[in-house]
Amino acid sequence: MHVPTIAQQDAECIMCRHLPEGRHGSGPDRPGERAHRHAPSSGNEARRAVRNVIHAQADAIRRKDADAVMACNAPGIRSFGIVAPLRRPDAATIREQLQYWFAAFAGPLDCEVHEPDISTIGDTACARFLQRFSGINMRGMAVELWVRVTMGLHRIDGRWLVAHEHLSDPLDHDAAPAPSKP
Questions:
Q1: Which of 86, 87, 113, 115 could staple 6 via S-S, CB 3.0–4.6 A?
Q2: Domains with residue ranges and CATH for the chain
Q3: Distance CA 10, CA 16 (A)
């Protein structure tokens, strides 16, 4: 089953101008998404702005640009990753982990966003999506990693910024080792 990336979704729907006949508000547009509905004005603009932050962060990851990733974050971001430390206490730690992670890939790093679900109210937004990373590590091995991402964003001085980020790695219970007996 093909799951469109966020860029493909945006190309298909820019404020409903390009939706095929009969799809607007008629049920899920894609597997895993809610019905495609747009409330008038500001809600759409806020969701679009949040989607742009998600795009900017994914583009920065593909370029291995830690500064550009950090530019998407609010001061005092709370970040919870999938590798130690699980709670990243400050921007310096986040930047250091990004640079370490980027250096682990010998060549390009791909970053895709799938099934975004964005909700906003006032100056607060929540975005939930799946993210796929792939590339060749320094040992020449192909790496593919899927994570679940939840972001809390705040509009600060007119800019949407990531204030909370939580990544989780789905555990394959069938592949996990059996618990040891005491």
A1: 113
A2: 6-168 (3.10.450.50)
A3: 10
